[in-house]
Specification:
Elements (H helix, E strand, L loop, with lengths): L1 H23 L3 H12 L5 E3 L2 E2 L4 H13 L3 E3 L6 E5 L7 E5 L2 E3 L2 E11 L11 H16 L4 E4 L6 E7 L2 E7 L5 E7 H9 L3
Antiparallel strand pairs: 1-2, 3-4, 4-5, 5-7, 6-7, 7-11, 8-9, 9-10, 10-11
Length: 196
């Protein structure tokens, strides 16, 4: 009987340590995502009065209103909207965006930023400085709490924030472009589970 109790206690201890190890192995990002998704909080604000879940008609109406006010113009490609972003550094920058749709509703907003005077030899407008500027801008818009996430050799770095269902990622896309993605995580996870 004593050996049986000792064996059960040993198993319980082992599984307790295993559980603690698994939980503590979660990255800071995974903990943030899990906490925010389980909070039940819904954050749909994107920017400029645009929201996750907004239908196409409402999106086009809002962009048309902002265009009439001189805030938005057509971007350089067929499916892009352009905005002169008020960067914290004061460096003039273009912000281009156009949503991804799920059932004719916005579920993701990819956004690309470029400094207007960028040149390979201009260190003041390097992509790393642009990324810092975008993070500061987004902290003004969405509040603090962005964390750095990187691969092992730090060749790929992103800054990420999750508020309820909304995740924002900011990363270097090209030599002169920083990309941000604002996504409804719940819909993205459903799409990943049920690809069409």
């Amino acid at each position: 009987m004593k050996n049986l109790l000792h064996l059960r206690f040993s198993k319980l201890l082992f599984f307790s340590f295993l559980f603690i190890s698994i939980v503590s192995c979660k990255s800071e990002y995974e903990k943030m995502e899990s906490r925010e998704l389980s909070s039940g909080k819904v954050e749909n604000e994107i920017f400029l009065g645009l929201e996750l879940g907004m239908d196409k008609k409402a999106f086009y109406d809002r962009c048309w209103d902002l265009n009439k006010k001189g805030l938005l113009t057509n971007g350089p490609s067929e499916l892009s909207v352009e905005y002169n972003a008020p960067m914290p550094s004061g460096n003039p920058a273009k912000m281009r965006f156009y949503p991804n749709w799920e059932n004719d509703k916005i579920y993701m907003m990819p956004v690309e930023f470029t400094y207007e005077g960028w040149a390979p030899w201009n260190e003041e407008l390097a992509v790393e400085k642009l990324r810092e500027d975008v993070v500061k801008l987004f902290e003004e818009w969405y509040g603090p709490g962005f964390i750095e996430v990187a691969n092992e050799d730090k060749s790929q770095i992103a800054f990420v924030k999750v508020d309820g269902n909304r995740r924002i990622r900011i990363f270097r896309k090209q030599l002169s472009i920083v990309r941000a993605e604002i996504v409804d995580l719940k819909i993205q996870k459903l799409k990943a589970e049920n690809p069409s």
